[in-house]
Amino acid sequence: MIRRLLPAILVLALSGCGFHLRDRITLPSQFGAVRVVSVDRYSPLAESIAQTLERGGVTVAREGAEGAVLDILTEQWGDTPISVDALGRSQEFSLRYAVIFELRRADGSIVVPRQTIELARDYISNPVNATGTEGEREVLARELRREMASSILRRIDAVFKSGAKSAPLPIPQPAVAPSPADAAAGNPGGR
C-alpha cells in the first residue's frame, strides 16, 4: 500500500512546490536561421551553442550563409590563486570564464545587446602532489563551457519570452584577469 501511495505523494509534493522541468530554448519562427560567430574560428563554445540550437530545432546557418548572427565577441579565461600554504605556494585557485556576446537579426538590427556573462569555479591544487590537477582543471573548463552555452541561450530565450524591446546598455568589462601562463605565452586575452 505504501509503495503505491509514495509515488503519488511525491508527484503532488513536487507539483505543489512549483517545481517543473525547464522548457527547451525556443526562438520565434520568423527569426529564421542563426549563424554562430566567434573570434576564435574553432571555438568549442561556439560549436556547443550551435549543437544546442540544432537540438532545439533551430536551423543553424554555416559560414557565409544568411541569417541572424549570434556573435561571441570575447572569451576570456583566468586562473586566480585564492589561498596559499605556509611556503607561499598556491593551493586553491578560482577558474573564471567570461564571455561577451550579442544577437543580431539578418538585417543587422540588435535583438540582444552586448552582454557579459561570467562564471567561476574553485579547485584545489596540491603543489606537493600535482597528480591529476591539470585533469581536474580541464574537466572544470569543459563544465564551464557547457554551462556558458546554456547561460547564453537562456539569456536569449528570456529576451524573447519577455518580448520587451531593450535599449543598448553600456558594456561591462569582465573581471577576469589573464592567467600568468597566458601572459608569459604572449596571449594577454587568454584566448
Helix and strand arrangement:
Blueprint: H1 2-16, E1 34-38, H2 44-55, E2 68-84, E3 90-104, E4 110-124, H3 133-162, H4 180-184
Parallel strand pairs: 1-2
Antiparallel strand pairs: 2-3, 3-4
Helix pairs in contact: 2-3
Descriptive labels:
191 residues; alpha+beta; Double Stranded RNA Binding Domain; four-stranded mixed beta sheet; 4 helices; flat
What is the topology, as strand order, of the major beta sheet?
1-2-3-4
* Rg, alpha carbons: 21 Å
Q: Please give the alpha-carbon distance between the first and last residues.
A: 60 Å
- Number of separate strands: 4
Give start-end ranges of low-pLDDT stretches. Answer: 166-172
Q: What's the CATH topology name?
A: Double Stranded RNA Binding Domain
Described by the principal axes of the CA atoms, the overall outline is flat
Report the β-strand fraction as a percent range: 25-35%
Derived structural class: alpha+beta
CATH superfamily: Lipoprotein like domain
Quickly give the CATH architecture: 2-Layer Sandwich
Report the biggest beta sheet as strand number plus sense, adding barrel if it closes.
Answer: 4 strands, mixed
Number of helices: 4
The whole-number mean of residue pLDDT values reads 79
Total discrete domains = 1
Q: What is the element string, with H for helices and E for strands? A: HEHEEEHH
Q: How much helical structure, as a percent, in the residues?
A: 25-40%
- State the name of the first-level CATH class: Alpha Beta
